[in-house]
Amino acid sequence: MPGVLEQLGRIWTILPDARLVGGAVRDLLRGQAVADIDLACAEAPDAVMAKLKAAGMKVVPTGLAHGTVTAVIDRRPFEITTLRRDEETDGRHATVAWTQDWREDAARRDFTINAMSCDSAGVVHDYFGGQADLAAGRVRFVGDARLRITEDALRILRFFRFQARYGSGRPDPQAIDAITALAALIDRLSVERIWSELRRILTGPEVTRTLWQMHDCGVLAHVLPEGSSIPRLERLLACGAPDAPVLRLAALVAGDERAVARRLKLSRAEGGALARTRGEPVPCPGLDGPDILRLLADHDPRDLIWRAWLRQADALGRPDAGWEGLRDQLVRTPPPVFPLNGGDVMNAGCPPGAMVGQVLGQVRQWWLEKGCAPDHAACITRLRAVLAEGVARAT
């Protein structure tokens, strides 16, 4: 990251005591690419902004209430947060005060592997054994697990997400005991935060093992009170299905998917995709070319493909060449487009009004029955015949 290091160097020139914090330190220690680079410093937000602006740097006050400003260098954002301590928490929000104590700031973080900081000299400051936990594959809360959870119940779901990605072996017993005792606190969270974490769990590593752990702790029942079926999701994954979160949610949900979409406040696109994925018709191996065309004329290819994944999970629960061939055919076949529109119907002599749609529907049904093969000229011929039949019935 030569460009990033140069940009960090500019920040450290202005704020020499600032440190990298959180996931950036964790991922650097693991030799992984760093997505977001966050820093912390002991100076108050106003002082930080003043120093950065005096050095000619663009600064955005992105979260002053929580001590965060964003320095923008060559369009790359760097969040810089003043060291904090929690004055008051209610399980969702915290009232914070500034501090100059790095350990005090680290103590308010969720897990030991996220509580480390790294200064400009490359020295890692680790107050709670995060490096050892990272090396051993342990995900532990900083200090008292129950206290960390009561400060922010979202940490329950974050624990499982981090355990799947960084943990190995059995989860930390103290964490599991605390989560089991406090699982009902999830009900106090906003559903947007719940879905944000769940979708990451669904697309992360060790998906079903993580969900079973959540189930055993009583957590999954609060996340999906409508009901869930981990075995069905296991069968879907065994088939080799892609890691699309809505597809995996469609397999996991055992209750009314529309109720799930409403409660979790899924986006319109996600909620619609969830409902359609669990809808009809479902393509199955053995369909011929005209059958495929008829399906594609009325349904989005992705919806059909995802329905096929779910049906394969229910029918087989393993890879199969026939199902794979079906999905390949759905991908490769261009969706047919009905050649006529309302203007064609009126040009053929049909007066404007409801009859235009009725006639167009009759011709389209004939076109579907013919395997979507008739071209524009053939459909015009059929249109004239339909109109003539209508005139004959009317007289």
From TrEMBL:
Q: Give the record's keywords alphabetically.
A: Magnesium, Metal-binding, Nucleotide-binding, Nucleotidyltransferase, RNA-binding, Transferase, tRNA processing
- GO MF annotation list: metal ion binding; nucleotide binding; nucleotidyltransferase activity; tRNA binding
Kindly list the biological process annotations in GO that this record carries. Answer: tRNA processing
Q: Does the keyword Transmembrane helix apply?
A: no
- Please list the cofactors this protein needs: Mg(2+)
The protein's matches in InterPro entries, at most eight in alphabetical order, are given as: Bact_CCA-adding_enz_type3_sf (IPR050264), NT_sf (IPR043519), PolA_pol_head_dom (IPR002646), PolyA_RNA-bd (IPR032828)
UniProt lists the family membership as follows:
Belongs to the tRNA nucleotidyltransferase/poly(A) polymerase family.
PANTHER family with a match to the protein in the record = CCA TRNA NUCLEOTIDYLTRANSFERASE 1, MITOCHONDRIAL
Q: List the protein's name.
A: Poly(A) polymerase
UniProt lineage = Bacteria, Pseudomonadati, Pseudomonadota, Alphaproteobacteria, Acetobacterales
